[in-house]
Amino acid sequence: MNNWAVISTWSMSYDGLVKAAELLKKDKSAGDAVENLLRKVESYPLYKSVGYGGLPNEDGVVQMDAAFMDGDTLAQGSVAAIENVKHAVSVARRLSLNKTNSFLVGEGATKYAMQNGFEMTNMLTERAKTIWQNKVKQQLQSDLHPYDGHDTVGAITLDRNGSLAAATSTSGLFMKKNGRIGDSPLSGSGFYADSHIGAATATGLGEDIMKGCLSYEIVRKMAEGKSPQEACDATVYPFCNDLKKRYGQVGEISLIALNKKGEWGVATNVEFPFCIAAKKQGPQILMANPGLHNNTKIEPISQAWLDDYQKQIKAPVK
């Protein structure tokens, strides 16, 4: 095989993707690479939608969801509404080794992490707390919708042995209801991986992504012979169009995919930056946008866009 590749959602995953690419070059496993990618994102305090510094729910508590899937064995592990755990994705990966009790939520997930030696910490940074306090004040002053951000980090890795792995991590909707869970930890919706075929992960409004089991649908279409890009386009755009007709609205939805050959694909109904690296393709950030004919327009990001992005995430909070 001797081929490797990695794809991940959002520009915030770039440093993690570089780390994953380095591991894959050194013949490390797809599982190790994807876990390390997500841990890098979870550790950075300025990313408001993942891990340490993630924005809290309406009660001011950071509750995280994460998942891991081994494409060789189809083993899966997930956590939801877990609290005070530095790396939710690592807990999910450990749970994937269990024959039963592989999906834990709330207090049970947090207790498991504590009992099994995972790093525990207060995930609510002062910066995130200030943002939450400001939003509470705004709600009291006007009828503002508290929703803000849902940028799940999702990633797929292919190692030199032909093994695929997928993982996700998110703090979910800002100001969400206590205990709210989106698509990210749910098999078939937020993620799916099969080393015989390919893998996909999702980011966006979980309540809508779950209506279509979109990650599994993309993998199923790849199994029928479609390329990752064809499978993404054929899944995301018809679903979004149909959901808008039947449900009256559709939230932001973006998916990435990678097949066993190392070919990748993306589809989205919003502007969506993602990261990619492969044996013959150095790490880079690309921008996807919905095309005019149920297809996806992909182009490199501009330096101006990247500079503005860095400025936004590092802007002081008052």
UniProtKB/TrEMBL annotation:
Q: From what superkingdom does this record's organism come?
A: Bacteria
The record's annotation in Pfam families points to: Asparaginase_2
Write the protein's name. N(4)-(Beta-N-acetylglucosaminyl)-L-asparaginase
